[in-house]
Design a protein that fits this description.
alpha/beta; Rossmann fold; 2 domains; 5-stranded parallel sheet; 15 helices; 40% helix
């Protein structure tokens, strides 16, 4: 079992604080395993078993606890003294009105509460209002390349071979155990179907699954491309699917709430404002994209761009597409009041490509760091007019 140290450390950082620790992330990204690892940490630090309450709401043995009153009574019966209790509720969105349980436990004063959910919407609406200022969100992703390498550290493969396997298999943690492609494909299909059925279809009535699947395929095919609601609707309509802008917008919201896709807005570098038109979408896992589209090596540029986006949000950057006059920056990444600019391309060996990829960065006249990430084996770790050229694999493996 690979210890998800980054996330464990974050839970430890907020341990015993009067804040709800909310772990969000796509299905099967490792949230349940994270709780198991954190419980091991608690036990190693002298927390008794009877002061730890862990409930996975997708486990059949807890089915009767899907009623929020039953859930509260079950937990309340285990709180028998004034000592600190650690309450860990996995996939809590399966409990209707679960926010009432959380609020009631919080006011007891001796409950350290941790919850997970597979939908971004769980932090909107009533829960967000009820817990305003009283929760911290921990956004969890499937394996980074660095974590993937740590599992394969005893293999004889070099980093390049492992990177090739990483983009051709999947970043979902459990997928590393599947050696046969057909088994991996079935596993990823199961994850995809769980997202579509449990996180989307159950949320909304009269959803057209066939149309939703078509939109998903279109979005996977358009990773890294600038899109608008209107041009998505037009493209689907021209393919024989009659759909209006309102329906496209609703379905895209469902797909991003389920964390199958991430929407990235444009940032006007000169005007320092967010632009309301056009955005890009990135997939949470290249493996699911592969099974829906087939492996497309001509798409490698967009694939590595997707991986860089996920790594930036994993490193807790707020990420936008950089817009400048007559140009675009792949990513403008914000953290702690600073900005970093990133271009991502396969190679800079071709002179024309170098001129194209550096042009937009050179037209930014602030003093924030600028990077170009490539798969080049030579010519990296260099400075091109103030722009750092870094090998992508080295960047993915660096400490941060």
């Amino acid at each position: 079992m690979i210890i998800r140290k980054e996330y464990i450390d974050y839970l430890i950082k907020f341990k015993d604080m009067e804040l709800i620790k909310v772990v969000t992330g796509v299905r099967r990204c490792g949230k349940s395993t994270l709780f198991i690892q954190y419980i091991d940490y608690l036990k190693q630090n002298s927390i008794n078993d009877d002061h730890i309450v862990f409930i996975n709401m997708e486990d059949m043995k807890y089915e009767e606890l899907s009623d929020y009153k039953n859930l509260y009574n079950y937990i309340n019966e285990k709180i028998v003294d004034n000592g600190k209790y650690y309450i860990l509720l996995d996939e809590i969105q399966n409990v209707d009105k679960y926010e009432k349980v959380i609020d009631s436990l919080l006011i007891k004063g001796n409950c350290d509460i941790y919850i997970t959910g597979s939908n971004a919407y769980m932090l909107s609406g009533e829960l967000a209002t009820l817990l305003s200022g009283r929760y911290i969100e921990i956004k969890m992703l499937p394996f980074s390349f660095k974590e993937y390498v740590s599992y394969h550290k005893n293999d004889n493969n070099g980093y390049e071979d492992l990177f090739n396997k990483y983009i051709n298999s999947s970043s979902f943690p459990y997928s590393i155990y599947f050696k046969e492609e057909i088994i991996l494909t079935n596993y990823l299909e199961d994850i995809y179907n769980s997202i579509i059925i449990k996180d989307i279809s159950m949320r909304i009535q009269k959803i057209d699954i066939s149309l939703l699947n078509r939109i998903v395929k279109f979005m996977f095919d358009s990773v890294g491309s600038m899109l608008s609601i209107n041009n998505i609707a037009n493209k689907l309509t021209s393919s024989g699917y009659k759909i209006d802008n309102k329906t496209v917008s609703k379905y895209l919201k469902l797909l991003t709430d389920s964390m199958l896709f991430y929407k990235v807005e444009r940032y006007n570098v000169k005007g320092k404002n967010i632009l309301s038109s056009l955005e890009k979408y990135y997939a949470v896992d290249i493996g699911i994209r592969n099974i829906k589209l087939g492996r497309r090596y001509s798409d490698l540029g967009h694939i590595i761009e997707n991986i860089v986006f996920l790594e930036l949000i994993r490193r807790k950057y707020e990420v936008y597409i950089g817009f400048i006059q007559d140009g675009e920056i792949d990513f403008a990444a914000f953290k702690n009041g600073n900005i970093e600019y990133y271009q991502v391309t396969l190679s800079l060996i071709d002179k024309n490509v170098m001129e194209r990829e550096t042009k937009s960065l050179k037209n930014i006249h602030d003093n924030y760091p600028k990077y170009i990430l490539t798969l080049d084996k030579i010519g990296t770790n260099t400075n091109i007019d103030g722009i750092r050229h870094i090998n992508l694999i080295d960047w993915l493996l660096e400490m941060y």
